[in-house]
Amino acid sequence: MPKRNPPDDDRLRDKNAPRRPPSRGPGAASLLFFWPFHLLNLLTRPLPTPLKILSRLAGYPIVASLYPLVAFAVIFGFRAQHYDLAKIHAMPERTIIYDRQGEEIGRIHGEKRSIVPLNQVAENFRKAILARENERFYNYGAVDPIGIVRAFMKNLQGKKEGASTITQQLASDIFKLKDPERDDEIRSNKFRLLMMQIDRKCLEIAIAFRLESAMTKDEILEAYINQINWGRQIKGVGEASRIYFEKHPSELTLSESALLAGIVRGPDAYNPFSSMEAATRERGTTLNRMVDAGVITKAQADAAKLEPIEVRPKWRRNADESYAMDAIQRDLEIILEHENIELGGLDIITTIDLRIQHKGEEALDKKMREVERLSGYPHQTRGAWLETPEDQRKTPEYIQGAAVVVENRTGAVLALIGGRDAHESKFNRATMAKRQVGSLFKPFIYLTAFDQGLRPDTSISDGPIQTGEIKGAGNWHPHNSDGKFGGMQPVSYGLIRSRNTMSVRVGNYAGIPKVKEVTRMAGFTTPMPDSPTSFLGTWGASPWEIASAYTIFPNEGVRYRPYLISEIKDREGNVLYTTAQISYQAAKAGSAWSVSRILKEVATSGTAASVKRLGFDKPCGGKTGTTNDFKDAWFSGFTSNLTCTVWVGFDTPKKTIQGGYGATLSLPIWVDIMKTADRLGYKAGELNTKVKTVDVELCLLSGKRATAGCREANTAHSDKVPADIAPPENDLCPIHPAKAQAVDEAALATPEPAPLKAQPVIEEPAVPRAVPRAIPVE
């Protein structure tokens, strides 16, 4: 008989014995927490017993390791949420400064970076950076498991190799995750450093997963190549390509692309400025990797290795420094918010014309070198200073100069030269140097006097100044630079020939308070002192102030506020700021017109008569200025379009050369600048064509309306006078009253002639009073 199955336990159990409750399997909490183990048991149950045991022995530790991994994923995933991914698209980059023609002047603010779209980068470079950093970048996600295994094996062999993906590197760089590990105190504690490195790596991976889910691979690669450090504080392929090879990233050759990709591994050690040998070696390594990755052939790699490496020459590697840039930066610090300065990324359009700027710099240094070559020149030369070893050089003491060019009808500054070289001396003499202006100030005295009725043809004495003649001058007796005195001369002669005695008398006529007000309106920021000596320019002003002030002469008394910044845009072309042109009437149009006509004669027959001989034959006007002992040499002149002021001297005032007049040292520089400007389209047209004039008969002595007495004394003359300063019809000459009519003698034969009224005695007014402690001027 077939063997019967044994009875189950229930059949053998006593019917009266209590039954066990049926098994309900694992509890709910157990299933929730240990479900990976239950799942492993379920999956291995069909296996034969030996294999089942082995599978579970190996599987339980693996499943157990998932618990800390999940915990880490939750913790670091939560921490990763606090990092703003928008920062990827807000990399600080350089603000670019342009001149008015669109030429780049320099770069400031932000970081040494210019954002370049991926499609504007050479294909060679994209292949090179991927071969060097992550050739499987497009084949995996945030983490590269193969790369991790490979790096682990290499490290076991004693070869240092990382396994971070491009996405991980981007996360670490953008959010500066490595910065805390660079602290010296932390680095001295190896255990603490190890814990921080593990923490940073986990956070880096968590952020990388976020990036991979939020951005495409091309977007990540674009952000990466614009973030990479290329040594010398250079960030991004755009700036690296510009600084190392002076070209756009789209123009990179295979050789150049491989060299740039090779720098990434050691930015400060492998860049060609630090070590051409190391850079060449890394270029070869990168080319070999490109061959291994199958993106180029061996023949292409061999050809690229043979190409000579041509980088930016050493003399062009200095930072963008110029006196114009210095002044622009100072203005931007006032205009821009702190955030704009930090982030950069702006386009600044300035008023500077680099063609005139460079010509001014060249003309200044050329003239100074001529001076330094003079026989017996007693001062330090720039050449001698440059020959001194760099570690022994002191602050330069060679002769310096400055120039400012302003557009008359806008106030736009076209050129600003603050010295011979901004790398050798940071002091910006164009805006910061307050030097005695000497005779350069005289036109403003005459301008003030013309405002009050004095005329260019009015006669005034060129004789010695008498004690008490000049209000507030005491016993001060200024002399003329030639040591001579003259008689009565037209007022205009005093300005044309730069006569001190005449100019002081004109200033005395105008009065210090009035001259001070005109000075302030003309744009001088330093108040004129209350001493009569100020009439001869014994006080200081900068070339910037003087150039702006002189624009009122060709502008019929109108002054435009000088400015350097025209417009500020973001990189999308949105206009963030525009400078408004601000103008106002600084002096009467007729008075400015009168001074301008005289200054035109200065440039034809006065102290600046050499302007034509030096090569500038267009209509112009201006004034030379030379201070005591030839310490400061000036020329400020204008055309219908531009005004330019030039100064030459030493930073510590001392004699330049014997005979170092403004016409000798500064005027040639002015001529070179203005010739270039005229050739470039800033044409010098006819001067002073807009002022309305009227024909008036005036007295040469008083400048008032002529009377019959003036005609009798032969002092009456006809003149074209600007309508706004013409004397009223009833403003008659007080020196020559109308002559009495002849009386019929028969009418006098009366028995008792009526008593005659005493006629008022007209006293000839004292010669107009004058001014200051003289500075021998031209």
Q: Output the structural class.
A: alpha+beta
Mean pLDDT: 86
Order of strands, widest sheet: 2-1-3-11-12
Cα distance spanning the termini:
148 Å
State the helix count.
28
Shape: elongated
Q: Tell how many strands the DSSP assignment holds.
A: 18
Radius of gyration: 43 Å
Indicate the percent of residues in helices. Answer: 25-40%
Multimeric status of the protein: single chain
Poorly predicted spans: 7-13, 740-778
Sheet-strand content, in percent, reads 5-15%
Largest sheet: 5 strands, mixed
Summarize the helices and strands and which ones pair or pack.
Layout (H helix, E strand, L loop, with lengths): L8 H4 L15 H17 L4 H32 L14 E4 L5 E5 L14 H11 L11 H12 L9 H9 L9 H5 L1 H25 L2 H9 L10 H10 L8 H10 L3 H4 L5 H17 L5 H9 L16 H13 L2 H6 L2 E5 L3 H19 L9 H6 L12 E8 L5 E5 L11 H4 L2 E2 L5 H10 L7 E3 L26 E3 H6 L3 H11 L1 H11 L17 E2 L1 H8 L7 E3 L4 E6 L4 E4 L4 E3 L3 H17 L15 E6 L5 E7 L3 E8 L12 H4 L1 H13 L13 E7 L8 H5 L3 E7 L56
Parallel strand pairs: 1-3
Antiparallel strand pairs: 1-2, 3-11, 4-5, 4-16, 6-9, 7-8, 10-13, 11-12, 14-15, 15-16, 17-18
Describe the structure.
This protein is 39% helix and 11% strand. The chain contains 28 helices and 18 strands. The strands form 6 sheets. It has a 5-stranded mixed beta sheet. Helix 6 crosses helix 9.
Structural key phrases:
five-stranded antiparallel sheet, 778 residues, five-stranded mixed sheet, disordered C terminus, alpha+beta, 28 helices, 18 strands, elongated
In summary, what is this structure?
This protein is of the alpha+beta class. Helices cover 39% and strands 11% of the residues.
